[in-house]
Each structure stands twice: as C-alpha cells, then as structure tokens.
C-alpha cells in the first residue's frame, strides 16, 4: 500500500538517507523539475548509485524521469538500464499511448517496473484519463498535478485564496480519481505545497482519503507522518468494517442487513472489504 510517496531531488544524495528514514512508503528520486538541466547528469549518477546499493531500508524506490518527448528522458532511461526499482513516474502523461510508449522503452532498457503516470499536466491529458483502463500496461497507480496545467492554459493559479482548488483543478482531481478506479489501480493525490502547514495538510489528506484516494505525494519529510496517519484506517473504522463483513458472511443469501443500527447492503460490504484491504486484513 502506497500511502506516502516522498519526492527527493536526484542531485541531492545527501538527503537520500534522511528521506528513507522518514517513514514514507516510497521515495521518488526526481530527475525532472527538481533538477536543473546542468545538474541532471550528476543526478542520474547519484540515483543509479543508490539503486545499485543495498540500503533500501524497507521503502519502495521510484524514479521520476523527464517527459517522454525529450532527449533527457532517453538519457534518464539509459542511466537506469538494468537496475532494480519499484516504479517509474512519468510526467506529462497523456493517456494509454504515453504509458505504452514508455513501457516499450523500459523493456528495451531492461527495466522491469510499473509506471505511475502524472496524468493531468497538459490540456490533452484531461481527455485521456479514461484510457488507462485499457492500456495493457502495468501501472503502480494514477496521480495528478496542479502546477503544470495552469501554466499550460494561461491560468493565474490553481487555488483560491484559502488554498482550495479552483473548479478546473477540482475537475482534474476528480477525473484522476475516477480514472484510477476505472483502471483498478491506486489513486494517488497530488502534493500539498505548504509544507509547514501541518493542520492544512492533515485536513487535505483526510479529505483525500474520504474521497477515495489511497495515498498522496509529499515534498518534505515532515509531511510523511501526517499523510500516513490520514490514509491508515483507524481502529474504530476497522472494527465497524469487520462487523459488516461478518454479518454478510453469516447471512450470505441476504441482500440487506442491519448492522450497528443502520441498514447496509452490497455497496457497504464492498466499502468494508476495501477498508480492511487497506488495513491488511482482506484480499
């Protein structure tokens, strides 16, 4: 389960150990936006060295490469050829065709890793969010971003003064959520950029978990514990889900039952099973 995915600049190997010790479920070594063009060769070398090492510390290791249509992406994949990693993050993804093209390049480079597309960074990408279900490519999930898209369409910002997303970006978020579930893969929410606002992050992450996201990305180690807590079912939720599952197991021919003073039916059973799956109790 990927609750928290922490970005780490690929050209800052001095931060790798601290990031790995943060409690994040996955690290995303960034070769794209966090790294200046002149620093990309050093970043590739540092990330490759880390991936060859043994110090994984129980955390999954992803790499965000540069966009598919750039020469930098080819250089990224060449530096990762034959290495063991847990996922490739693809920026500027535009639907099934993008992940299919990347999968072919990964195979050529002998990189056996699922793909995590950042699926809303161009206008065309919005219209392709439903295509991932038929991509025929192993995906680690589906995520989105609210920074590149405003720039691409000439918007002043993606957020209201109070930090909420404006309607176009709420739409992008919602379509990513539905696109991920349609494809049967984890829905990963975007970063919360105000990394010192822990209360705001907690509200945002809990809203994401409420809405059906299974995790989110982070930009600072201090965000990880808050994100993990938001996406970890609480004891009361687990107990309630167990009661629903047990009630249906005891009456398998019944369509609707009374549990904890309310009527529950098939959708409630599915929700309970999904929650127990997140808690590691159902498969």
Radius of gyration: 20 Å
* Strand elements, count: 10
* Measured distance between first and last alpha carbons: 12 Å
* Average of pLDDT: 92
Low-confidence stretches: none
**Number of DSSP helical runs:** 11
Q: Element order, helices and strands?
A: EHEHEHEHEHEHHEHEHHEEH
What sort of overall outline do the alpha carbons produce when their principal axes are compared?
Answer: globular
Oligomer: single chain
Instruction: Please summarize the sheet with the most strands.
Output: 8 strands, parallel
Give descriptors for this structure.
283 residues, two-stranded antiparallel sheet, alpha/beta, 8-stranded parallel β-sheet, 11 helices, 42% helix, 13% strand, 10 strands
Concise summary:
By secondary structure, this protein is of the alpha/beta class. Helix content is 42%, strand content 13%. The protein has helices spanning 16-20, 40-52, 71-80, 96-108, 123-126, 148-153, 167-183, 198-211, 224-230, 235-250, 266-278, and strands at 4-9, 26-30, 60-64, 87-90, 115-117, 142-143, 187-189, 215-218, 257-259, 262-264.
């Amino acid at each position: 389960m990927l609750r928290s995915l922490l970005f780490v600049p690929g050209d800052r190997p001095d931060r790798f150990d601290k990031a790995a010790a943060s409690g994040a479920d996955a690290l995303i070594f960034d070769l794209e936006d966090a790294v200046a063009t002149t620093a990309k060769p050093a970043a590739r070398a540092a990330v490759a060295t880390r991936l060859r090492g043994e110090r994984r510390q129980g955390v999954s290791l992803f790499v965000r490469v540069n966009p598919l249509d750039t020469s930098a992406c080819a250089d990224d994949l060449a530096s990762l050829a034959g290495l063991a990693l847990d996922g490739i993050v693809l920026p500027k993804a535009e639907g099934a065709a993008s992940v299919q093209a990347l999968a072919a390049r990964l195979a050529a480079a002998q990189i056996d890793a699922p793909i995590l597309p950042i699926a809303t960074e161009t206008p065309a990408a919005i219209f392709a969010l439903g295509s991932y279900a038929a991509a025929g490519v192993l995906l680690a999930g589906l995520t989105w971003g609210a920074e590149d898209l405003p720039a691409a369409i000439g918007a002043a910002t993606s957020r209201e003064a109070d930090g909420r997303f404006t309607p176009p970006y709420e739409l992008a978020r919602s379509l990513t959520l539905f696109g991920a579930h349609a494809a049967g893969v984890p829905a990963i929410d975007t970063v919360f950029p105000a990394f010192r606002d822990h209360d705001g992050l907690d509200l945002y992450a809990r809203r994401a978990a409420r809405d059906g996201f299974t995790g989110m990305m982070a930009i600072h180690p201090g965000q990880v514990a808050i994100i993990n807590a938001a996406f970890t079912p609480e004891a009361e939720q687990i107990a309630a889900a167990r009661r629903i599952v047990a009630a249906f197991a005891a009456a398998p021919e019944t369509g609707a039952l009374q549990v904890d003073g309310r009527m529950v039916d098939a959708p409630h059973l599915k929700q309970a099973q999904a929650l127990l799956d997140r808690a590691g109790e159902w498969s």
